[in-house]
Design a protein that fits this description.
With 678 residues, the protein is an all-alpha fold. It is built from 19 helices and no strands. It has one domain.
Length: 678
């Protein structure tokens, strides 16, 4: 193993990526072979699929011209290899989201029909849909990134190739931000409109076919929580590998040490890919209450296999003087990811005290529900931040900045499983909606609700996990930025550095304001349309006339596409302007301020939103008066406020800070020490 050449190591990585894509293809075939249910179920599923594709087509029609313009600018200033890498990264990221969404819109109706048989079968179909997404992301990430690197190495040395392939990460980050923000605006505008007018004003059940916004809401589950999440974690995956390799250029491990430091994160990712594929076999249950445990078993099994594989890799491949230090760094990152997931589950699952306390607060109205939910979100940042801090300290003390990068790779090494567990939730949610609209037996909805409840928790875990990854990854990118820009340190007593810190701390709040207001404006248009249809379509409330779902889909699509551009530009332009006007050190301050602010704000928003959602579901399960009671109405208000928290603004913040860091690394050579002003 120690004689593995750099080129052969890259080929091993390509092989692991190909295996992941083959696994995704096999899962997709299994899903397609399942029974799609009754003609009515298939009709509803077709409407959801058509709406999702319409949104994605419109979104990509905006993203593609933007990507071409950015690629042209990069080519002009940084050369053809960087511009080409940017386009390859953007293409792979977009393709990963597209595959996941197409699979989800085929699996939803099959999950609903499987739920007529058993909860175990429904879990298997929905989980395989998530696994298709997970292994598509991993496979395209490894193949795309390594393929781009191999192509660049034909004509340049490794230093230049890594600088150019930074464009790959930048392209993936750009698509991720637009996909996450656009999809988040869409899904929450539809969700808020459907809930406020349908459940609160009209008093009809969730996913009632009389509500014209329910199809748009179901579409949103796919474009936001599947396509958006896929693009998000794709860029995290390749970004962590890239950041570690950039830092690895500067390790001092003796002869051949740099090659090993560069190969190591790629080989770790390949081992994690295989471990995740094997661990999919343990995600099974026969009981509704066993869904969460089955998913957790899959995550723990993949992590254990990963640790065993990487221990062997460290001992066999790395110099003996650093092998255990690197393994400790990786283990610290992996364990931190698991702990953040468990802590997020504690704060967002109705199986535990915090969410049950939040549900109890709904007995005294919406105001106390909102106060308790916000307090829960703020409280939920404390322990995860301590976990991240301890893991960073362990990684840094054992292997410096390289250890921190390896920690990020360790957290993401089992992404195939992590994303499978996350992306199954929207499929289960869609399946419940289809069951309701198709008027299937109440037992079917109970089974899909068991999956959906677990999916809410796993989605919250995924968002907390993504924020933890961002902290590790950005710190590693910060080290690369220092090397590229020539900075030896950052002096916080320098007024311009402090200005950068303050602006960086402010940007996540400005970004969140833009995205939440975008949801609010889109939701107003949706609410007015639903009210109009209830008022003007005769027989709609009686169930003798059909709602105009297509108009609601069109409203959500137009609003999301129009309003996703400004937040995206903020992330790309702010580091460039800061670097040009205030200089490299101020830009370093900007990145530090944005990181700290984004981690806290993103984590608290995501956890508050997840807790409000599950508090509502806890009440709906029969506690504190159940559905239709005053506490339930208060919980619906809390859930409605929490929707843009957990599905738009909160999860977009980790992409914001990663994209800003990637832009800074890519353009570091363009900035002077002091900027234009001094």
């Amino acid at each position: 193993m120690t004689t593995l050449s750099f080129h052969n190591g890259l080929l091993w990585t390509v092989a692991a990526g190909a295996i992941a894509l083959v696994a995704a293809m096999m899962f997709r075939i299994v899903i397609g072979s399942q029974d799609p249910g009754t003609p009515l179920m298939q009709k509803i599923a077709a409407q959801i699929r058509t709406g999702a594709m319409a949104f994605l087509t419109r979104e990509y029609s905006v993203i593609i011209p933007f990507m071409l313009i950015v690629a042209a600018v990069l080519t002009y200033f940084l050369g053809v290899p960087t511009g080409a890498s940017f386009l390859i990264g953007a293409l792979c990221s977009g393709l990963a989201g597209f595959i996941g969404m197409r699979t989800a819109t085929i699996a939803n109706v099959r999950t609903a029909h499987a739920a007529t048989v058993s909860v175990g079968k429904a879990l298997r179909v929905s989980f395989l849909s998530g696994a298709t997404m997970g292994f598509s992301v991993v496979g395209l990430g490894l193949l795309g990134f390594t393929g781009a690197l191999l192509w660049l190495l034909r004509t340049m040395d490794i230093n230049a190739a890594l600088q150019a392939v930074t464009g790959f990460g930048f392209g993936a980050s750009c698509v991720a931000l637009f996909a996450r923000v656009g999809g988040g605006i869409y899904t929450k505008a539809a969700d808020v409109g459907a809930d406020l007018v349908g459940k609160v004003e009209a008093g009809i059940p969730e996913d009632d076919p009389r509500n014209p916004a329910v199809i748009a809401d179901s579409v949103g589950d796919n474009v936001g929580d599947v396509a958006g999440m896929g693009a998000d974690l794709f860029e995290s995956y390749v970004g962590a590998i890239l950041a570690t390799m950039l830092v690895g250029l500067h390790v001092e491990w003796g002869e051949g040490g740099v090659d090993k430091a560069l190969l190591f994160p790629l080989l770790v990712s390949g081992i994690g890919c295989i471990a995740s594929i094997i661990a999919t076999a343990v995600v099974r249950t026969k009981r509704p209450h066993g869904v969460q445990a089955a998913l957790k078993n899959g995550m723990l099994a993949s992590a254990l296999l990963m640790l065993l594989g990487t221990y062997w890799l460290c001992v066999q491949f790395l110099p003996s003087a650093v092998a255990m230090g690197v393994f400790l760094s990786l283990t610290a990152g992996l364990i931190a990811g698991v702990l953040i997931g468990l802590l997020t589950e504690y704060y967002t699952s109705h199986s535990y005290h915090p969410v049950r306390t939040l549900a109890a607060s709904a007995k005294t109205g919406a105001a106390t529900t909102l106060i308790e939910g916000l307090a829960l979100g703020y409280m939920s940042t404390a322990l995860p931040v301590l976990v991240i801090a301890i893991a960073i300290a362990i990684a840094y003390l054992t292997q410096g900045l390289y250890g921190i990068g390896v920690g990020a790779v360790g957290m993401l090494s089992t992404l195939g499983m992590t994303l499978a567990v996350d992306a199954f939730g929207p499929v289960a949610d869609n399946a419940g909606g289809i069951a309701e609209m198709a008027k299937l037996h109440h037992e079917v909805r109970e089974r899909t609700d068991a999956l959906d409840s677990a999916g809410n928790t796993t989605a919250a875990i995924g968002k907390g996990f993504a924020i933890g990854v961002a902290a590790f990854m950005v710190l590693a990118l910060f080290g690369a930025f220092k090397e590229n820009s020539g900075l030896t340190g950052i002096d916080v007593s320098n007024p311009f550095t402090l200005i950068g810190l303050l602006i960086g701390g402010m940007i996540p709040y400005l970004f969140s304001s833009l995205t939440m207001r975008a949801v609010g404006r889109a939701a107003v248009a949706m609410i007015e349309e639903v009210r109009r249809q209830f008022r003007e379509i005769k027989g709609l409330m009686e169930g003798t006339a059909e709602a105009d779902s297509a108009t609601c889909v069109a409203i959500a699509t137009s609003s999301a596409i129009r309003q996703m551009v400004l937040p995206g530009l903020l992330a790309i332009v702010s580091p460039v302007l800061t670097g040009l006007l205030l200089g490299r050190e101020a830009l370093g301050g900007l990145l530090a301020g944005t990181l700290v602010s984004s981690v806290m704000l993103g984590m608290s928003m995501s956890n508050s939103g997840g807790a409000w959602d599950n508090a509502k579901k806890y009440i709906e399960s029969g506690h504190f008066g159940g559905k239709g009671s005053d506490p339930h109405k208060a919980a619906v208000v809390g859930d409605t406020v929490g929707d843009p928290f957990k599905d738009t603004s909160g999860p977009s913040l980790n992409i914001l800070v990663k994209l800003m860091s990637m832009v800074s690394v890519l353009t570091a050579s363009l900035y002077s020490v002091n900027g234009w002003w001094h």
